[in-house]
Amino acid sequence: MRDTRESRLLLVLLITTAFALITVDIRGGEDSPVDGARRAAATVFGPIENGVSGAVDPIGNAVAAVRDSGDRHDRLAALERENTALKAELGSDDRNRSRSKQLDRMLKVAGQGQYGIKGAQVIAIGAAQGFSWTITIDVGADDGIERDMTVLNGDGLVGRVTTVGPHTATVLLANDPDFTVGTRMEAGDELGFASGQGDRPLRVELLNGKAEIKKGDRLITFGSQADKPFVPGVPVGTVSRVDPSGGGLTRTLYVTPFVGFTKLDIVGVVVQAPKKDPRDTVLPEKPKPTPTPTVTVTVTPSAPADGQPQQEQ
Fold first, then answer.
1. How far apart are alpha carbons 103 and 98 in whole angstroms?
2. Can you tell me the distance from the alpha carbon of 272 to that of 115, in angstroms, rounded to the nearest whole number?
3. Quick check: 268 and 117 in contact, CB under 8 A?
């Protein structure tokens, strides 16, 4: 439509009519003469408006947001509380799953070694900066726990019980400097004594100074008289370093323990020793070595520059 006098007059007339209808509608309220038309229009165009209102009416959305800010704030706070509770529940489920796995591994170790164990949970851990590496467990004399019992988990040797109360007990960890346990090399009879060194590998003194030991060899507990404080066959660790033999009576090894002493949770106290030495049966299977890929390079001799075969001299 061209911008003419007639078009301008028509536009003014339409605007005037629109304002008149709006005024009549407002004053009429529910009895408005245009109420029927308005409802019909809402039926037809309502769904379309809902679909595009976010794109075509950002100011309206902003106003609605301000108007409903109180309700939205309350709902947001409720959602945050629900989310926090859900996270706590999820964390609890994750922890329970982790404990279930720890318990399964420990029961497997107990079954392989034929150890009678009493399961326990770590409820406190001594500070590494203190004089000893210890943990407190939630079983005690009322549960049949006695001093000098072996403590293990699904990975291996944890320590030994040193103090017993009615409902709790203190365990000296195997990495404590005051801790010593008799050891035996896997698939052999080389005996030694392992001592804790805090957060460093265990130090093992082999009785045979000429023993052939290499990195990766594994050790288990040798066992004590009457199985106290140590039962035989509990995995101790893997050799990480071997001191050169200096012709002495003993040989020094450094052993990385199987157990992570800073993340203990579920442990087991051996309340009944095995009827016979399980030897190496409790050790986990050795990981299979990954084959190293080899690359073969074939060199093709190049032809002489003149294209003629070379003559032997």
1. 9
2. 6
3. yes
